[in-house]
Specification:
single chain; mainly alpha; 2 strands; ABC_2_transport; Nod_factor_ABC_transporter; membrane
């Protein structure tokens, strides 16, 4: 008389479509992010507050490209808010690892690439919320002036550029333990924003500082996002944006492969 065990041969287990990526797991991830009060503050309150803090300054009506200084600041603040939000979302992997959630995911058929895509999608959604919040504040202020098409183009480019910082957040999340990830990313992104010309135009810096700024991660994306407004986009800014995005994605994939190698 033969008996069978309930053990399932891993070799015969079917891999789900899209590596396990589906609307259910995306919905769970989004709800987890939106229920986090700190995430909501980063997404909606902080970027909008930054935009308000710059309001009412003299010189906002000065001409810049096809708009004014107010539009220039609006595009910059939208990029910063989206970058901060995306990085915060990506860095949540550090907390997930400390709580054992990442280990649970490694025991499921969810493919590592699907996991990265899930994080990227959530970062895009949260980044979009930050961009909308900043733009709504800009509209209510009534200081920013630029064509509607330019407004849309700047917002769309800011959304695409959030992927760079989502990848940075995931990379830092796998390197730094627990909640320390955002303690590094928060001040780090602020410093990169100042140095990369997101808060202050590089023309106001000394030549030596400008030479360093051209190599920072925030410089390229800042120029790309403001290009529809300024109609200026140096080729080396595009190389900077693409290069840093590639580097952060590769770093995130490398650290994740190291982590998923352990069960």
């Amino acid at each position: 008389m033969s008996t069978t065990t309930g053990t399932l041969d891993p070799a015969t287990r079917r891999v789900p479509p899209l590596g396990g990526l589906n609307r259910t797991v995306l919905g769970i991830e989004l709800r987890r992010m939106l229920r986090n009060r700190r995430t909501v503050i980063f997404t909606l309150v902080l970027p909008a507050a930054l935009m308000l803090s710059f309001g009412g300054q003299s010189g906002w009506d000065d001409k810049v490209g096809v708009g004014n200084v107010g539009a220039y600041i609006l595009a910059s603040m939208a990029m910063y808010g989206a970058a901060l939000t995306a990085a915060a979302g990506g860095s949540m992997v550090a907390l997930e690892r400390s709580l054992g959630w990442s280990r649970q995911l490694r025991l499921t058929p969810l493919h590592p690439v699907a996991y990265i895509l899930m994080k990227a999608f959530v970062a895009l959604v949260m980044g979009a919320l930050a961009i909308v919040a900043v733009n709504l504040v800009g509209i209510l202020q009534g200081k920013a002036e630029m064509p509607t098409s330019t407004w849309i183009q700047c917002g769309a480019l800011a959304l695409v550029c959030t992927l760079t910082f989502a990848a940075l957040g995931v990379f830092i999340g796998y390197v730094v333990p627990g909640e320390n990830a955002m303690q590094i990313l928060g001040p780090g992104l602020a410093l990169l924003s100042f140095l990369g010309g997101l808060f202050i135009p590089l023309s106001q810096y000394a030549e030596g500082v400008r030479l360093v700024a051209y190599w920072t991660p925030m410089y390229g994306v800042a120029e790309v996002v403001r290009a529809p407004l300024t109609h200026e986009l140096p080729w080396y800014a595009v190389v900077n944006a693409v290069g840093w995005c590639t580097l952060f994605v590769a770093g995130a994939a490398w650290r994740m492969s190291k982590d998923t190698a352990r069960v």
